[in-house]
Design goal:
CATH topology of the largest domain: Four Helix Bundle (Hemerythrin (Met), subunit A)
Largest sheet: 7 strands, mixed
CATH architecture of the largest domain: Up-down Bundle
Helix content: 40-55%
Low-confidence stretches: none
Length: 543
């Protein structure tokens, strides 16, 4: 699933009707899920947070900007927060299956559309910036709305999209800044004190900006902070009757929750303070939680080859996320909150096989091929876990743990393909009903590429299968053999689905390329699978 977050800021935090209509524009956009609306009276600004798949996010953002343009008049606006337009800033944030460049491209596409259809000048910032000087939002917004008339005609500050003129439409709407940035995690650490002073002391030590200390001679010494991409301050929270260290993690790929938690715990011990737990304010990407779970699994000396559910549970326990508040993964993890309902992978085994046996053509062989692959990779991970930390296999502990971890990841890729194969088939059937040749062609390619992806994943499994049969727990050899059989069935089933989809396809070059690739994979894969199965059969056969 591809998922992007969008956080548009609008220059109205006082007019409830305006705030609601912009929210309705987002909620009324197909595929977008509005997560939060945060108005500020003094700032006269409202921050909206929503998520969706890429196309849905762009449409929702456009609809919100169009609504804001109609309702907000910048000539009448005042507020404490810097601003230069009705929709002042609109960043895209990668959540799942998206790169930063993907999000930057969404910002460019939206910017072009807003400029062309709405007549609003657009500047690009952060990862979408057209030059280094425009990377920083503050540089673009310098002079604010009041200085826009002069700024927009300066060749140096020509908008990235839209005309460089302060016309009547722009006088009302101002300009908009769009871009791509990292996900910001609002993360608070709970302290066993009501006093915010020691909490603030730790905040200064861990935050990237560090602290300044006055020397006896009146000079200042700068002490750098311990954590990059970390902002922090200590405060007292009346609702919890305790002090907290309030943290913003501006790039969790650099500094994640476990980094902040462990570092703060170590610093707290130095001054006799205790961190009792933590809380996540707002929502958090699944990947961030998974990384924390993996960190604590490794620290405990256990295998990292754990399910997402177990890693989430481990992160919750290790970070103390249920200390001051209750952490509900279904409500706090973005992917869980907005996940699609009724997926095949959510069914029980009985439910899946019942659906498979029904007269409905989907799920069919393609989804089953992906299921076979997930079983193969899952069994490899299982044998690795059954070998790890067993005394008779100590020399292989590090290797089998790595194999189990990597096989577990491949298993998850196969699982996602179970749903994707059925989705691709349904899209193909829908395309045939339209009788639109271009749409049918694209749907056919997608319906072929998904099972091809299933088939190609076998190349990632086979090296682990070949190795685990040699160094894995001998009591689990039969599981290695079953994995080999399922891997072969997975590839064969996926290949048949590719071939039947391409049988009468007009794009012969596309079809020929996929078939050639499948034949190449098979010629190498099948002898290796057969060899593994033969080795297992020899070793388990009674003498």
């Amino acid at each position: 699933m591809k998922l992007v977050e969008c956080v548009p800021n609008f220059s109205d935090g006082r007019n409830k009707e305006t705030i609601q209509k912009i929210a309705d524009a987002i909620k009324g956009s197909a595929g977008a899920t509005l997560l939060d609306v945060d108005p500020g009276y003094d700032t006269n600004r409202t921050v909206y947070t929503f998520v969706g798949e890429p196309e849905s996010a762009v449409d929702a953002a456009f609809n919100a900007i169009k609504t804001g343009q109609a309702l907000i008049d910048m000539r009448l606006h005042s507020g404490a927060h810097p601003r230069m337009g009705a929709c002042d800033v609109c960043p895209f944030v990668p959540v799942a299956g998206m790169t930063m460049e993907d999000c930057a491209e969404l910002a460019r596409r939206l910017g072009k559309r807003v400029a062309e259809e709405l007549g609003i000048p657009v500047y690009l910032y952060e990862y979408a910036a057209s030059n280094p000087e425009r990377k920083n939002l503050a540089n673009i917004r310098a002079g604010e709305y009041e200085g826009l008339a002069q700024k927009i005609v300066d060749p140096k500050w020509k908008p990235d999209f839209g005309a460089a003129e302060f016309n009547e439409k722009v006088k009302k709407s101002g300009a908009t800044v769009m871009g791509a940035r990292e996900f910001l995690i609002a993360y608070n650490l709970d302290c066993n004190t009501k006093d915010k002073v020691p909490a603030n002391t730790i905040a200064k030590r861990i935050r990237e900006s560090g602290e300044k200390k006055k020397n006896p001679d009146g000079t200042e010494t700068f002490i750098p902070g311990l954590l990059k991409e970390c902002k922090a301050i200590g405060w007292y929270v009346a609702d919890y009757d305790r002090a907290q260290i309030s943290i913003n993690l501006t790039n969790y790929h650099v500094t994640n929750m476990h980094h902040a938690f462990d570092t703060a715990v170590a610093e707290a011990e130095k001054i006799g303070l205790r961190i009792t737990g933590s809380e996540i304010v707002g929502l958090v990407p699944l990947q961030a939680i998974i990384e924390s779970g993996l960190h604590y699994a490794a620290r405990q000396g256990g295998s990292r080859a754990l399910s997402a559910k177990e890693l989430v549970r481990l992160a919750i326990l290790s970070l103390g996320l249920n200390d001051a508040t209750t952490f509900n993964p279904q409500e706090k993890i973005i992917e869980y909150k907005v996940g699609k309902k009724g997926l095949l992978t959510h069914l029980t085994i009985q439910g899946f096989t019942d659906e498979l046996a029904s007269k409905s053509p989907a799920p069919g062989g393609g989804s089953v091929a992906a299921l076979n692959g997930s079983i193969a990779a899952g069994l490899v991970a299982m044998v690795g876990n059954l070998t790890y930390k067993k005394k008779d296999y100590q020399e292989h502990w590090e290797e089998v743990e790595r194999i189990a971890f990597e096989a577990h990841s491949i298993k998850d890729q196969y699982v996602s393909l179970i749903n994707r194969d059925t989705d691709a088939f349904n899209e193909l059937m829908a395309a045939f009903k339209t009788k639109d040749d271009a749409r049918i062609s694209e749907a056919t390619k997608k319906a072929s590429l998904v099972p091809f992806e299933v088939a190609a994943l076998a190349e990632k499994v086979i090296p682990h299968l070949e190795r685990i049969v040699k160094i894995g727990n001998k009591n689990a050899l039969s599981d290695v053999g079953v994995a080999a059989l399922n891997l072969k069935a997975s590839f064969s089933g996926a290949k048949l689905n590719v071939l039947i989809n391409l049988k009468d396809f007009s794009d012969k070059a596309f079809a020929s390329d996929l078939v050639t690739k499948l034949d190449r994979i098979q010629s190498s894969l099948f002898p290796r699978i057969d060899k593994v199965f033969f080795e297992v059969e020899v070793m388990v056969t009674p003498k």
